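Researcher: Please translate sequence to structure tokens.
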Amino acid sequence: MRNLCLVSLLIAILLPESVRGEFSFEEYKDRLPWIWESPTKAPVPAVANKEWPADEIDTFILAALEESAMAPAPPASDRHWFRRANFAITGLPPSAGATEEFLSNDSKDRRKNAVLALLASPHYGERWARHWMDLVRYAESRGHESDFGIANAWRYRDYLVRAFNDDVPYNDFVAEHLAGDLLASPRLDPETKANESILGTGWPFLGEEVHSPVDIRQDECDRTDNKIDVLSKTFLGLTVACARCHDHMFDAIYQKDYYALSGFVASSSYRQVRYESIEVNKTQARKLEALRAKMATETLKNFAREAAPHFAELSKKPTFRIPGPLTIKPEVGQKVRVVADYTRPGITPWIADGPSFGNGVSAEGSLILGSSPDEPGLRIAGYGAARRDPFWNELKITDSANDSGSFNSHSRSGKMIRTPAFELKTGRLHYLIRGNAFVYAGVGQHIMITGPLHGRLIQRPKIDGDQPRWVSHDLSRYAGLRTHIEFGAEGGSPLEVLMVVEADKPPAVEQKQLNLTRLDLSAAWKDLADGMVEKENLHAARWIVEQPKLTASQIAPSYLKELDAIRKGVKWESGLAVAWLDGNGVNEYNMDRGDPAKPLEPATRGLPRAFGLSLIDTKTSGRLELARQVTSPKNPLTARVMVNRIWHQLFGLGLVRTVDNFGWLGERPSHPELLDYLATEFVETHQWSIKSFLTRLLLTKAYGQSSTSADPSFDQRDPNNVLLHRMPVRRLEAEAIRDSVLAVSGRLEAKIGGKPIPTYLDEFVVGRGRPGGGPLDGGGRRSLYTSVRRNFLPTLMLAFDFPAPFSTKGKRDITNVPAQSLALMNDKLIYEQAKIWAQKVLKEMPSATPEERLNQMFENAFTRRAGRHEIAILMESLPGLMELHGGNPNSEGLWQDLCHSLFSMNDFIYLP
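Model: Translation complete:
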């Protein structure tokens, strides 16, 4: 982002004022009015050649061609179309059998049926998940110096595969990314009841993280900048991050718009969510709360009935001295800032991950019912607190990793509460707690805690005994910065959190002794017998139930039975995934020239003002409201940007070539009316269904064109194929090339999902944080499942323009350099797979002639038969190869060389 700011500064200095001008919101908005206005369906144009269009989409393409006195290319052969469609949908070559079945089908709907069959393949989700992963800069490590891992990042990848395969409507898909943790009715796995929607919120945390940053606030702003860059480009096609240091140089985006979006990021925090159990356990937690509320009165009455003989003996004394309430008493003149107060409900917003602390503050006087026969059947809370419920002690984590660095030895997942975010004044915090705690101060939302600088953000206090005590946490070096405090229990120990204050020293905690008469005790006893304790009798009643002779009362059998039924319904084990946790609403400061050391006024959260939508000033993050605005059918960019991305993936170029930038520095649409027609059709006709929309595009005459122009002069008149007078010849992406090698050799494993396979690293790949390498062929898995470590990306795929995962990359680079030919000739994987393919050919065709084998190899590799000249050339090479390999025409080495030569041909990596 610093580079972007530098570029903007250079533009401001070097461009003449007549070009750059001063920021003028209305002028900038007026010169690109269409991107701020909802798309409307343009009328379908008239064309002379009425026979060619198969769809209104074709009519728009043809109209532009006819206006330029051009014509579309002739249709591609069925073989070419079928190969093209297979790669477009699944990223894999068609098998020889699938090709033969398609070609032998005489149905007029065979192309449509082929498309529907391919879309029904689970490999469709793999292909289109990878497209989306480019947008959210997917990686499984945090880069920087030591490339620490991002725990369980792969679950976001698998979520994408399932979402595309399930054809989740795009508006719902976007809502899951922005607020999947806040949806009233999240999307659940029909069998496991795992929360799918919440997994969509993992994308913000797939970026880089710096461990031990010198300036933790600057680091927070840099990470937020990356999130804003990804969010605005991916969903809206806008470069909002260019307004970090000043109003946008070219678009109608204020600097305060950038910070308005930043507030959504600042209002939510990182977590590893128990996504498989969260919804089931929410239901069970509500049942548990309802059961305890129902049993409270009955339990008090049972207690009074069973303990009556002992109470009669106890109450013979005339006076009693018992513990009273806890009071916080600052010294005279002492300034104490209460950051969070859990001693009474409704004071501090309740922010929790999981059910372990219940659904809110356990108030003073609340009844605490045991969860098993081993616990006291009844206690009355003498003070309010956030209390960990021992009922949930058996929660377990399965098939998941802990966070890197200082978090590695402890998991807060599903058993944590956190305070609202607040700004540190002095930084001298004190926590009033009882029990063993894992405390994390989320200063600047810094989570990559390792190294020498920020270890103090974590504490592990142990407060034994019956009374809470203060624990001090010196964060004075972070004074002036924003933080929140997270509390999680260590192991199965109890934990009560009462208060978080900021003061030079903790205030005194006193517990007065109360003098009660026999009448006071009788009044409390009467309350117990009536099943409800009045406030004035609270501490007397608490003292009564804690007397040794009276606590022997057992829990009611009916309560234990219902409790056991709830326990059986709990999902105790769950995997973890990266996700957002909603916090309190935070409006980020505008910053003078983007400098976090120079904050100005806060910016109310919301989308850029040019959209004309209301700002979002909610008590919580406001991400749900943001999601509603982004996914509204009236939003001018959401549908346009997505249909343009889909068009780009199918046709090799978008209607807007700059797929991530619809602004002034981006390109204008080649077919603006078609873009709006597609956007409105996507929403209205296709109901945001990507599969339905893909089916329509794949069956157009435009997609079915040959890559050879109808007239050679068209290539001079339309050299960049802007008018789509033919289908472009396209090189396969890095993953499709590698996957094709595995598919053709027969080594490809069809398994969907799972943990990443470590990247194969040869002896030349070195560096700090170098991970253990994996198998050369990645276990036969698709490239999607190869581990994406920022500092150790797979070398073969880098040669074919695999993108570095640092920001949104909707349009991959496509280079043609000698290193690619060298990679196909010399890479160990290609050499190994050529050998495996040769073994397969010899095994399956032991008695075939060389010509028959070569034809079958061409069919498998290129979806076509070999040409006569190709057969002639290869047959001419056989004598030399035979001599090289011992004179045996069935030599494995000979056929390995032939297989290797086919892998190196342009036909293998290019689609006609």
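Researcher: Any highlights?
Model: The longest helix spans residues 278-314.
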